[in-house]
Amino acid sequence: MENQRIINISKKLSYHLRHAPEKIGLKLDKNGWADVSTILSKLHISKAELEECVAKNDKQRFAFDERHEKIRANQGHSIKNVDLELPISSPPKILYHGTVEKFMDEIMKDGLKPMSRQYVHLSAMIETAEKVGSRRGKPVILKVDTERMTEDGMEFRVSSNGVWLTDRVPAKYLSKFA
């Protein structure tokens, strides 16, 4: 299947599974799962296209249930009532966050906040944070002292595609990656 078609399907899936299921009459259960048959019908795509989109997504944004009858986004929801049932996990000592210079004053004052999402997204790899930051311009990479955060009682979760999630990151745990 052509690459642009897969990209377009991925964008639609992200939008509807993470932010606006109601726009196409989609119902998510409390854990963010939607019926595959409904997705196929509402997005006018085939099961093969959906399977390929999930398999080829470079960020592994989506997951099927064991029977491939349900699908959900792995993280990034702006829908507040979705519980992905991610257990509390112990992160590496340092995680990274990509942003751009224009947000740095506010971040270094107020820390990282989830904004419209449920969680702040962090990466174990500098390259991933750099890629995220570069979506809006020249990236600035922040180091997050997760060891201190954990010692101070803050919790982390990790999605099935390796994105680390936390409620917020106060500024005292942040430093610029040189």
Describe the protein's architecture and organization.
It catalyses: 2'-phospho-[ligated tRNA] + NAD(+) = mature tRNA + ADP-alpha-D-ribose 1'',2''-cyclic phosphate + nicotinamide. It holds the Pfam family PTS_2-RNA. This is 2'-phosphotransferase. Belongs to the KptA/TPT1 family. The chain is of the alpha+beta class and 178 residues long. It has 2 domains: 3-73, Arc Repressor Mutant, subunit A; 94-176, ADP-ribosylation fold, CATH 3.20.170.30. The chain has helices at 3-18, 36-43, 47-56, 104-110, 126-133, 146-151; strands spanning 34-35, 62-64, 70-73, 94-100, 120-122, 139-145, 157-158, 164-166, 174-176. The strands form 3 sheets. A 3-stranded antiparallel sheet has the order 1-3-2. The termini are far apart.
> Any idea how many domains?
2
Mean pLDDT, rounded to whole units? Answer: 92
CATH architecture of the largest domain: Alpha-Beta Barrel
Strand content: 15-25%
Q: What composes the largest sheet?
A: 3 strands, antiparallel
What is the β-strand count? Answer: 9
Overall structural class, as computed from helix and strand content, comes to alpha+beta
Write a concise synopsis of the structure shown.
This protein is an alpha+beta fold and about 180 residues long. The chain folds into two domains: about 5-75, RNA 2'-phosphotransferase, Tpt1/KptA family, N-terminal domain (Arc Repressor Mutant, subunit A, Orthogonal Bundle); about 95-175, Alpha-Beta Barrel (ADP-ribosylation fold). It has helices at about 5-20, 35-45, 45-55, 105-110, 125-135, 145-150, and strands at about 35, 60-65, 70-75, 95-100, 120, 140-145, 155-160, 165, 175.
